[in-house]
Amino acid sequence: MSHTPSSRRDFLKTSAVLTGAATLAAAPMVHASGSDVLKIGLIGCGGRGTGAARQALLADKNVKLIAMGDAFSDRLNGSLETLKNQKDLAGKIDVKPDQCYVGFDAYKQVIASGVDVVLLTTPPHFRPAHLKAAIEAGKHVFAEKPVAVDAPGIRSVMESAAKAKEKNLALVSGFCWRYEYGMRETMKKVHEGAIGDIVSLQCTYNTGALWMKPRQPSWSDMEWQMRNWLYFTWLSGDHIVEQHVHSLDKMAWAMKNAYPVKAVGLGGRQVRTDPAYGNIFDHHSVVFEYANGVRLFSSTRQQRGTAQDVSDQIVGTEGTCDINAMRSLFSIKPRDKAKSTWRFSGEHGDMYQTEHNELFASIRDGKPINNGDWMARSSLMAIMGRMATYTGQVITWDMAMNSKEDLTPAQYAWGKMPTPPVPMPGITKFV
């Protein structure tokens, strides 16, 4: 999710980018020549998936969407119809009825359908298994954030990312702020010492309410949870993992991809208490501490009628960096009053589109991008924060990384599935 509650899943328009024509010897199933078609498969056909498909189709002059998969046929059909109705995608959509796959195993069929690139945009719980299958099959991947909801999933993703490097496969993450031009320039200045040594960080992601789909009489427990995946920890990781992870990733980036050694936090379910909202919290506040003593003060809230604030601040010995994500404003204010405040004034680009532009360009150039390591660690950082708020205990990085907590349900089937209990700090145990 992006800097506003709705825009993360909006369809963003940009012009197509023409890419190079180098040879990609290490991945023979992919045609690196600019005149050859790159075939795309979409796994997860919700709003984010439909937007990602559009961006992928605009990222290269010679691509086609040939296969789609989703747990629900109505989602798949609605996505396909939406894409077909966009005139600038004419000629790039070639999805036959027999390449529309529905069900929990739809991802396997999409991957086996002859595609070169897969877009993984299902609820985050499924990302590790889908990524593993895609990499094992030799496919390039766009993986939406976060990349897992528990530590076993993170460990699986890290293994898949390593295999992607071995196979010379591209793996681009949906941590879109890493692809925003203004943010890139701001972080470059921070890393070059514009604010001196970092002494503290703060990130906030406070929003209002998000969508919720009232349960229908025909829905089983599993279907209800799947259609309202935001509100179930096993599917989304809670909103600290599904949404606030963007903020945490920016802070990890500021720290040059260093990650905290421990976390302590508080959180709860204060307003959004109706059973319709599953078992997640509606607010989290976590203090992360790094090995050098630097602390990150992190907070996130999803409550209707409350003040919205999506911002970050990085404090250094020589100045302060302020990031207003809701307005895409970036500035650096030196402590030395004789020096002027720097503000980014260039083109921001469309960060969602840039992700795909650079993904496909890297495939064409035979120099595939691999975001695997940091996308996994940033996701784990958010999971670590959730562990701290759910349990009320101090959670170390090693504890989080080696956790045995596996949120996978007993089976993937359209039937009964009780709602997991709402965590209770001091009672819920670390596993």
Write up this protein.
The protein is of the alpha/beta class and 431 residues long. It has 2 domains: 7-177 and 352-370, NAD(P)-binding Rossmann-like Domain (Rossmann fold), CATH 3.40.50.720; 181-347 and 379-401, Dihydrodipicolinate Reductase, domain 2. It is 31% helix and 19% strand. The chain has 13 helices and 15 strands. The protein has helices at residues 47-58, 73-84, 106-111, 127-136, 151-166, 181-191, 221-227, 233-236, 239-242, 245-254, 351-365, 372-391, 397-401; strands at residues 38-43, 63-70, 100-102, 117-120, 140-143, 171-173, 198-207, 262-268, 283-289, 295-302, 309-316, 319-324, 329-334, 342-343, 395-396. The strands form 2 sheets. It has a 9-stranded mixed β-sheet. It has a 6-stranded parallel β-sheet with strand order 3-2-1-4-5-6, sandwiched between helices. Helix 5 (151-166) runs antiparallel to helix 12 (372-391) and helix 10 (245-254) crosses helix 12. The longest helix has 20 residues, at 372-391. The radius of gyration is 21 Å and the shape is globular. Mean pLDDT is 93; it is low at 1-30.
